[in-house]
Design a protein that fits this description.
The radius of gyration is 48 Å and the shape is elongated. The protein starts with 33 loop residues before the first helix and ends with a helix. The chain has a domain at 1-59. By secondary structure, the protein is mostly helical. The protein has helices at residues 34-58, 90-143, 147-171, 180-205, 210-234, 239-264, 267-292, 298-303, 308-316, 324-328, 333-348, 356-380, 386-394, 396-415, 441-455, 461-482, 488-504, 507-523, 528-548, 553-575, 579-597, 600-609, 611-620, 624-645, 652-670, 677-697, 703-724, 730-749, 752-776, 779-813. InterPro entries: SCO7613_C. Keywords: Membrane, Transmembrane, Transmembrane helix. This is Zinc ribbon domain-containing protein. The chain crosses the membrane at residues 94-118, 124-141, 148-168, 180-198, 210-231, 243-261, 268-289, 301-322, 329-352, 358-377, 389-410, 440-459, 471-497, 509-542, 579-597, 604-622, 628-645, 652-672, 678-695, 707-724, 730-747, 754-774, 780-797.
Length: 815
């Protein structure tokens, strides 16, 4: 369906309009006038009316009012059955593309066949006539607003231009095809032809053909490559420098094309030339770096002019700023950052020939200088701070790699000093050799810190400064480790810093102090004395913070059991206490702390910490069963005591009771007791006492909720033993009497739990006693019993169905 509202066409003469036109280039109709906007709105309203009218035409016809239905009525064709059709603009575009390809192939075939008998004059005349005719036809078609046809003939014209150059090469008027000179001529001619076609279309028809614009930039790139090859072939010395000049000229030419395209609003040429300029600049940069790779000394770079083209490339990086779109856009900083980074790279290149330390010093100095520049720029021109920050980021990677590597080596050396508690206080760190001098670590971190301060916004300056200070402190300790300092020189500063942060800092500082203290404790593990000092200082700091009542006290309470356990363990190692006794003592002290503190944080930390010394003590004990019983008793007693001291922890008593029962079971197994009642009876008795008290206080709760756990625990072990191993014994007799007592007592007291447990257990016991005799019963007895049972069930079912049917008939007779 054609559209009346076409913003791309002139409403008067129908000419194709350029982007954002002020007036029609053909008829001069003003398009910025308010009447033009009103006309466009009117045409859009006309399009809407056409759509509505078409919808009414496609709607099915209504039936007549008399109710008669026509014999045939065409409904709308289902969407899935409508064949897809090509758009109105697609068909001519395909036809024109095929026609242009056919013309070019025909021209090539004709010239190949007629090349031998046309002669030089004939060949020249034919090629010129074809080229001029195709170009003129494209301009004429463009004037008549046949855009696709004009584009096709532009492509044909440019193809003829290529054939002209190849023909001239075959005739001897130009370099032979396949040589660098032929590429040079071909690129120059195609660039000129593209510019000429674009100019003719723009001046004579007000059009901007895409093909003519698109071919100029690749042709310029090919022209530069061919020219560079020619220069290298003809120049024995300084060929690379000459090639650099060619590519620099290509960058300048591309920039000129971008400016020209911006002024004439040739959008395709603008983008293509910009891409070609970037590619040429990268080639120039690669050639310049490769040329200076053999000699990176100060003399080779500066005295002999090795940096000349690098400096030229840095200057050419600013050419994109000539484009108004780039200059006003958000990417305007990229050319500046590229130029300044390349200029700074010239200062770093001599260091590449001096080793890793020189590279670290050079790049670190650049990062620090540009960080200071960013900080100064932020005060004067805040929006321009991104430029020095970007340059600093360009050189931050070598510094960051060195810093991370040195820290990793230092950490590995600290962790490999010795085994746990296997060294004395004066043990030294044995650090391996590194690619960088360890003394450069602190200056490198300082350079990164300066860059971070320069990049940080004003609101984050304080936090960034604190972070940089912490990083410098860590770098100083890592440097000490890399210089094989005593382990105490690393542990004691960490412990003192953790103590100060936890005791005197704010809430966030408490977290930082706990992390630092944990790091100090891990590093101090090779020496028991250092570990005791580090953990003891953290214990004192946490205790002071917890008792002071300041913000962060909860974190201090939570860390106190952990630090206390670590300190006790290290002190026990120094005192020569065996691991089994040390584990029990640690469990007892930490548990008493939880009883005294009575805080949720301490309870959670205790639950997480206490199992570790307990397990270590049990594994290290000579008699593991006795040690297990001891530790289980301690843990159970502490849990029960904690439940008795706090009403909110009443449920903890159940876990404590289970641990105490487990301790009893361990001791019973150790002395050889095999009867299950010895293990379960005490716990069952305790559960029954608790359940009876609860039932007495709240009779509405019922016996199932209060007595069932104790009764099951009292009866089930004996029942399983009888069913599995000993069906005819005193245990079975006593179990049966007990079940009888439960049934009679439950019936007498109207308690459901003893009645249920006694009935189920007694029934299972009776069946187990009957099992040997049931196996000796003849099979016909079992079959007869099964048949009688099935008959009884079937009869009962049929009687129920009959009663239901009679009830239905009775209801049906009711009125």
């Amino acid at each position: 369906m054609p559209s009346y509202a076409r913003p791309d066409l002139c409403p008067d003469c129908g000419a194709v309009l350029p982007p954002e036109p002020d007036a029609c280039p053909r008829c001069g109709l003003p398009l910025r006038d308010p009447l033009a906007d009103e006309l466009l709105a009117t045409l859009r309203h006309a399009d809407e009316l056409v759509v509505r009218l078409r919808a009414r035409a496609d709607a099915p016809t209504r039936a007549p009012a008399t109710g008669t239905v026509p014999r045939t009525r065409r409904g709308p064709v289902p969407r899935r059955l409508v064949p897809r059709r090509l758009g109105q603009a697609t068909v001519p575009q395909l036809l024109l593309a095929l026609g242009a390809a056919c013309l070019l192939v025909a021209a090539v075939v004709f010239l190949a066949v007629a090349w031998s008998w046309l002669g030089v004059a004939g060949r020249t005349a034919v090629l010129l006539v074809l080229t001029v005719s195709a170009g003129g036809a494209s301009v004429l078609l463009s004037r008549r607003d046949l855009v696709a046809a004009a584009e096709a003939l532009c492509a044909v014209t440019l193809g003829f231009v290529v054939l002209d150059v190849l023909g001239a090469g075959q005739s001897g008027w130009a370099p032979e095809p396949g040589t660098s000179g032929s590429g040079l001529v071909l690129g120059a001619v195609v660039v000129a032809a593209g510019l000429a076609l674009s100019t003719l279309h723009l001046r004579l028809a007000g059009a901007r053909p895409v093909v003519a614009q698109l071919v100029i930039a690749p042709a310029l790139l090919g022209l530069a490559g061919s020219l560079a090859a020619v220069v290298e072939e003809r120049t024995a010395d300084g060929g690379a420098a000459s090639a650099s000049g060619v590519w620099a000229g290509c960058v300048v030419a591309a920039a000129a094309l971008v400016v020209l395209a911006a002024r004439t609003r040739l959008g395709v040429l603008r983008v293509a030339a910009g891409v070609v300029g970037c590619v040429a600049w990268l080639v120039l940069l690669a050639i310049s770096l490769a040329d200076n790779g053999a000699d990176l000394s100060l003399r080779g770079l500066w005295a002999e002019g090795g940096v000349t083209w690098l400096l030229v490339a840095a200057a050419l990086a600013l050419l994109p700023l000539l484009d108004p779109l780039v200059r006003r856009g958000a990417v305007a900083v990229l050319p500046e950052v590229a130029a300044m980074s390349l200029g700074s790279l010239v200062l770093v290149l001599p260091a590449l020939d001096e080793g890793a330390d020189a590279v670290l010093v050079a790049t670190g100095a650049l990062v620090a200088v540009w960080g200071l520049a960013a900080a100064g720029t932020a005060r004067v021109l805040p929006r321009r701070r991104v430029v020095p920050v970007g340059v600093a980021l360009a050189f931050v990677l070598p510094v960051l790699v060195a810093v991370v590597s040195l820290h990793a080596v230092a950490l590995e050396a600290l962790l490999d000093v010795a085994a746990v508690y296997d060294a004395t206080v004066g043990v030294r760190v044995d650090a391996p050799a590194t690619a960088w001098d360890a003394r450069l670590l602190v200056p490198a971190v300082l350079a990164l810190g300066v860059a971070a301060l320069g990049a940080a916004p004003a609101a984050r300056q304080r936090h960034t400064g604190v972070t940089v200070g912490a990083a410098l402190a860590v770098a100083a300790l890592a440097t000490a480790a890399l210089l094989e300092a005593p382990l105490a020189a690393v542990v004691l500063p960490l412990a003192l810093a953790a103590t100060g942060l936890v005791a005197l800092g704010n809430r966030r500082a408490v977290w930082s102090g706990l992390v630092v203290g944990a790091a100090g404790g891990v590093v101090a593990l090779p020496s028991a004395a250092l570990a005791a000092v580090a953990a003891g200082l953290v214990v004192l700091a946490c205790g002071y913070r917890a008792l002071a009542g300041r913000p962060g006290g909860a974190e201090a309470w939570a860390a106190l059991p952990v630090a206390g356990a670590a300190a006790l363990w290290a002190v026990g190692e120094l005192a020569g206490v065996d691991v089994a006794s040390r584990g029990a003592a640690t469990v007892l002290v930490v548990g008493v702390l939880a009883l005294v503190a009575r805080r949720t944080e301490v309870d959670l930390a205790t639950v997480l910490v206490v199992p570790w010394p307990a397990v270590a003590g049990v594994l290290a004990a000579g008699d593991r069963s006795v040690s297990s019983a001891l530790h289980l008793t301690l843990l159970g007693a502490l849990l029960v005591a904690r439940a008795l001291t706090d009403d909110r922890r009443r449920r903890v008593a159940w876990a404590g009771g289970l641990l105490l029962a487990a301790a009893t079971w361990v001791r019973l197994a150790d002395i050889g007791v095999e009867a299950p009642e010895a293990y379960t009876a005490p716990t069952a008795l305790a559960l029954l006492v608790v359940g009876l008290r609860a039932l007495r206080r709240a009779p509405e709760r019922g016996s199932v909720a209060t007595l069932l756990p104790g009764l099951v625990l009292a009866v089930l072990p004996s029942l399983l033993w009888v069913l599995a191993q000993d069906p005819v014994s005193w245990r079975a007799l006593l179990l049966g009497l007990g079940c009888l007592v439960l049934v009679l007592g439950g019936a007498r007291l109207c308690w459901q739990a003893p009645l249920l447990v006694g009935a189920v257990a007694g029934g299972l016991l009776v069946l187990r006693e009957l099992a040997p005799y049931a196996a000796a019963t003849p099979q016909w007895v079992l079959l007869a019993a099964a048949g009688a049972l099935l008959l009884g069930v079937g009869t009962t079912w049929e009687r129920r169905v009959r009663d239901l049917r009679h009830a239905g008939h009775y209801l049906a007779r009711l009125r």
